[in-house]
Amino acid sequence: MSEVVDQRADDLTAVLRTAQYLALLSGETDIWRELGQVLVRFFGADLVALLERRPDGAITPLYCTLSAPQACDRLADQVRETARQVLDSGFLASELIALPDHDYAIVLLPLAGGQQTDAGLLIGHRASQPLSQSLLDIYLAIAGLFESTMARLASEQAAIENAQRFEEQRRIAVALQENFLSPLPQVEGLDTGLVMETAFQPERVGGDFSDVFLIDDSLVAVLIGDVAGKGIRAAGLTERVRSAVRAFSTVDTSPAFILRKTNQLLLRREIQDEFVTAFLLVLDRETGRATYASAGHPPPVLVNARRCRLLDASFGIPLGAFDEDYLDSHLTLAVDDCLVFYTDGVTEARRAGELFGETRLVEAVSGLRDRSPQEVAEGVRDEAAAFAGRLGDDLEVLALRLRAMTVRGATTTRS
Q: Phi/psi at 129 (nearest 5 deg)?
């Protein structure tokens, strides 16, 4: 038993070291050279290649860490059909390949886990035995980190290019925040809606963020949060938190565990005056069973045909403040139950010193219970904006409703 615990600790350390290393990369670095060095330095890989599917369907290596490129080409040729299946399915594959000079144990990883993609990683070890399951699990987590790093760098580069057209620092922050906002994915079994409203006062533009992503075939994660700061640094930090949450969800699906590891990662930064509130929920779409935890972020509103209320949640400390554990809470969603997540720009919308508050929020959601999730999100935003006249802070509202088609044996019982 102690050996299993030690191995898991080593795996977590490896993921943490990689996340820290990648978080330091900037757009000025050769991203693939750096990613290749991570796998060679931290995990002993002998070959790392980026595979890309061209418009004509051919799959070719664009980059390879191996000093002998012909070996990389030969490996890529031998695994071409397997690589096509990996890119089509979004799931990894591993096998043994015999070349004239060496035998290789290889793994092929998509750079868009769980969905079709045109880019993947080929990682090879000179070995005559298959790669261990623990190493495959680590590489799956690393692929998620690579994908998030590329998205972050692309977002930062796009934001910098946009910012060149602006003369004021506050407008750069707006560009960053809008660039980080990505469309909600289509998730079977869920209807979703999202709105983000930038503060009327530009100097108040900050780091509201959200994310919805699949962990596996049945589990979906929903994240919302807010950086306690404003400007470019706050907007950039949101993407790092999202990347960390995605990476740690591949190790353990407990929201409390994911938030704790993300908190520990933030505490290792040199700049320690930025805090992040976050609420993370992991939902099993087949059963309706949900587990959630809060890092200083207000809980969502649960609404259905019978009632409308705030979820009960253990209120943990914000991320980046202190090293402390978080607590998981549970509930079971029934068909057509709707959850409305939000940032404090909603409840703290002001009019003559009076806050919009949680009571008005619950009343607003209750009046929208028969609307679609997108209409619910827009309606909450409109209610807060109408109350305040103009928004003094960013706000974000994310609504989701569980559909009947994927719930098996779910009840209306809630814990």
A: -115, 150
Handedness of CA 182, 243, 398, 384 (dihedral sign): negative
Q: Please give the residue that has the higher pLDDT: either 375 or 134.
A: 375
- Residue 120 is encoded by which pair of tokens? 């993947």
Chain CA centroid to CA 10, Å: 23
Residues 6+ apart with CB under 8 A from 132: none
Of 107, 110, 94, 130, nearest in space to 39 by CA: 107
Strands (E), 65-168: 93-98, 103-110, 119-126
pLDDT (tens digit, 9 = 90+) per residue, 192-246?
Answer: 999 988 764 544 455 788 999 999 989 999 999 998 766 556 666 787 898 899 9
Q: CB-based contacts of 414: which residues, under 8 Å, 6+ apart?
A: 302, 331, 332, 333
Nearest partner of 234 among 170, 307, 165, judged by Cα: 170
Closest CA to 124 of 59, 64, 82, 42: 64
In 3D space, the residue among 196, 380, 356, 357 whose CA is nearest the CA of residue 303 turns out to be 380
Residue 13 CA to its chain's centroid (Å) = 20
